[in-house]
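Sat 14:20. Reprocessing the chain from the morning session after the first attempt stalled halfway. Input below, unchanged.
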Amino acid sequence: MIGCHATFRRLDPADASALIALRLEVAAVNESAMGASLAEEQARSIQSFKDQLAREGPSALFGGFVDSQLVAVAGIHRSSSLPSSAHKAALWGVVVSPTRWRKGLGRVVVEMAIAHSSLVGVRRVNLTVYLPNEPAVRLYESMGFRTYGTEPQALCIDGHFYDAQLMSKECKGG
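Finished this time. Tokens:
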């Protein structure tokens, strides 16, 4: 389903422009899936992306490329190094180019992010899906994520509120 021209790897600062282009492409189609408005995405500097991609350690972004074009991304972020919460991380920024939906690319980059989190000792991965986004919910459920709550009005874009579905998965690690 993915195709023979797909490659996957951890992103680095040289991928910042491609990451911006992908995020803008997705935001133009579905802002709420991004968790930010198109205007907010357009306002981010390339340097902020380069800085984010330059970080070493447990937080990372993984990308899928088709014919050298970035078409899928998933990030993993461990927000705390304190021993009491170092066992968990957040899956974030999962986006797939609308031209490549339902090809399995999102699943691969999410699997890479989860595998990376396991390697750095994470036992639990949490995520937030802004609703409605049934394709994303189905993907995460098929990967073993379970809903543990809903945040009402978690996001407001142009006066429209979106709820968030909170999901979690135990993974090998720690």
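The chain has a mean pLDDT of 91.
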